[in-house]
Amino acid sequence: MLDKILQIVKAILNLSRFLKKNYSVIYKSQEVLKTESQEVLNAVRTTNKQQLNLTFLNKGLLSTADAISLNIKTFGYEYARSLREQLTIPSNLSPQKINLQSKACQQNDIESDWFFYWCQEMKIPVTYHRKLWEFCYILQALYEYDLLTPRRKGLGFGCGEEPLPSILAAYDIAITADEYSR
Fold this sequence. Notes:
The protein has about 180 residues and is mostly helical. Helices cover about 60% and strands about 5% of the residues.
């Protein structure tokens, strides 16, 4: 857990550099940010029996890190982009059964071959995004239950411009997709 917190603090510093470089946003000097970040880490570590002080983290980190208060989405997208740059996506991917279970979206799923494969099939670049994970998860579940076979039928509600109806149609599955709007 402490490693994850350290990664967040480092990401905040990287975001501050990014904002300053690309948008001329100056809110605190690097020295002040580094000092505040170290204070947060020290306070998080110094609780009974070296347990993490999450209350302090919630209050202290958010109040001392102006980068987060500036724009949490920018922070998240920039962090996701930096993670994406580190990925090595293999070629020659093929579908594989992995005994998929009901679960929440996790980083290791996005970094897995099954996720890469379905992104490749949908012709969507790999990104750390929950919605893309949902599309890949649905396709993986259908594959694992041998439901991606010709002449099957599917019904989708609220599909909008999602890629699933198109990819399912490419598998010769009759899809009826609807976007209900009021």
